[in-house]
Amino acid sequence: MALSLSPCLPHTTYLSKALSTSKLTTISVSFNNPLLGFKPVKLRNNQVRCHAVTDLKSASSLDQSKGEGDDRGEEESKGDRIVADYNWTEEWYPLYLTKDVPDDAPLGLTVFDQQLVLYKDGNGVLHCYQDRCPHRLAKLSEGQLIDGRLECLYHGWQFEGNGKCVKIPQIPADAKIPRSVCVKTYDVKESQGVVWVWMSQTTPPNPEKLPWFENFARPGFQDTSTIHELPYDHSILLENLMDPAHIPISHDRTDWTAKREDAQALLFEVTERTDRGFAGWWGKEKDGSMPNFLRFDAPCVLQNNRELVDKDGEKHYFTGLFLCRPTGQGKSMLIVRFGGTKRSPLAKLFPKWYFHQNASKVFEQDMGFLSSQNEVLMKEKVPTKELYINLKSSDTWVAEYRKWMDKVGHGMPYYFGHSTLSPPKLPAVVEHAPAGLIAGVSASSPAKGGIGTMHAPNLANRYFRHVIHCKGCSSVVKAFTAWKKGLSAAALVLTALAILASSRQWKAFLVLSATLCLGGAYACSTAVAMNTTNFIRVHRRL
C-alpha cells in the first residue's frame, strides 16, 4: 500500500502516525545509510557540521542517565558553562518559498530586528536590501517596481540590483547622483525552492553553510510546502515543532491520525551534540523502537526523517522539514515542507489549498498555548529550567534545544536558554501600518499601507498569517470570491425571470436553476471561509 506524508499536521510525528496505519510488509530503519545524505562541513575551530545521518550506528550514543535538571559534562556540573563561538549574522536564514515571491511587488521581511525588502528585477533575479530609503528612511517595501527597478513611493527614488540609486526626480537634469546614495544589500541564494539570505555585512557568505536536503533531490520526491507567520518567538515555535508528545492531545482528531488515547511515554536517544545543534532517534515506548530521526541545525532548521522498505524491497524516504526565521520579539515565520518518494493516490483527490488550510488549523490549535508561553518568558525573565518541568519521556528535544542555546545564545540578539538567558534590551516596536504586509497582493491592486482587502492586519488571523504569503491560496480565495459573486447574481436574475415567466415548466426550471446557483454560491463562500477563518476550539466533556 502506498504511503503518503500528508501536510495536514506540520509536526514531526506525522510520519509515525501515518506508518502505523500502512500495510507495508517491512519497515526498515537503516542506520548505515544517510537519511538526508549531507556531507560533513569543516568549520572554524576544527568543528565539523554533519547535516545528516552517516554511520549513526557506529557513533556512540550519549549518556542520558542524568536527570533533565543536571548539566552535561564534568565542567558544566561544576558550574562552568561551555560557550561556543557563534555569530547569528553568519548564517543563512530562510526568507520565502521561491514560488511565492511576488513578480510585480516588493516584499517586506525581517530577520530578528533587521528589516529587509526582497524583490525580483526585470530579469527575474532576486535582490535583497535593507528596507530603508537613504533619503528619509521610508520603507522600500511600500514601494513599487518600475522597469525592473525598486522605487520608493515617498519621493520616487529608484534603485537597481546592486543597491545603487539611479533616479532622483527632484534633482536638476544635468546633475549626477553621488555614489554614496545607495542602499545596504544582502546576499541571497535560491536553493531547492527556498530563498535564503546571508545576514552578515562583514563576513562573506559561506556556501558550505547553505542547507541542502538530500531527500528533496531524490527521484520521485514530492512535497507540499506552506508558509506561515506566527505571533510568538522562534524558540517557542521550534520547541513546539520538536515536541511529538503534545500532538495526540492538542491535535486530537484533526485529521484522524492524532488521537488522545495514543498519548504515551516516548523513547529518545541523543546521538550527536555539537556547537551547530543536535540529532538523535525517537519512537513510542509501546513499540519498543525508535524509527524516527530528528536533527536540529543552526540557526533554526529542524527535520524529522524516516526510511521504510515496501513489500517489493523498494526503499522509500519521508521528511518533515521546518525552516524557521526569527522575525522580531514575539514573532516568527515558518516554512513547512512535508514530502516523500512515494505518495498515496488519495492525496491527489484533494486540492493543495485544502492541505494548506488544514496546516493553518493545526497552528491555530497551538496558538493560545504558545502565545501565553511567550508572555510568561518575557515577564519572568528567568532561564527555562526554573519554569519548565521537563520529562525525559517526552521533553528530551526541548531540553536539548534550550541547552544548545546556553552555548550559543551570547551570539544572538536575545535568547532564553536552559540555565542562562539574555532578554531583549529594548521593547518591541509595534507598527500600526506594517510595511510589506500586503506585498503578496499584486502591485496593480492598491492594498498597501497595512489595510488589506479582507481583514485588518493581525498575525492571529489566518488571512494575514498564510493567505497573503501564498500565491496558490490567494488565487483560490480570489477565484472562489468571483464565482460566489457571479453565481449570486445569476441566482438573482433567474429568480426574477421565474417570477415573470408564465409557463409552469419554465418557472420550475428557472427556480431550480436559481437554487443550484445559490448552492454553488454557498459552496464558494464555504471554501473562502475555510481559507480565511480561524479555527475555534470547542471544549467538550469526555
UniProtKB/TrEMBL annotation:
Main location: plastid
Presence of keyword Glycoprotein: no
Domain annotation Rieske: ranges: 92-197
SUPFAM superfamilies registered for this protein in UniProt: Bet v1-like, ISP domain
One of the protein's GO biological processes: protein targeting to chloroplast
One matching Pfam family: Rieske
Keywords: 2Fe-2S, Chloroplast, Iron, Iron-sulfur, Membrane, Metal-binding, Plastid, Transit peptide, Transmembrane, Transmembrane helix
UniProt region (Disordered), positions on chain: 59-78
Name assigned to this protein: Protein TIC 55, chloroplastic
Organism the protein comes from: Gossypium arboreum (Tree cotton)
Lineage, opening ranks: Eukaryota, Viridiplantae, Streptophyta, Embryophyta, Tracheophyta
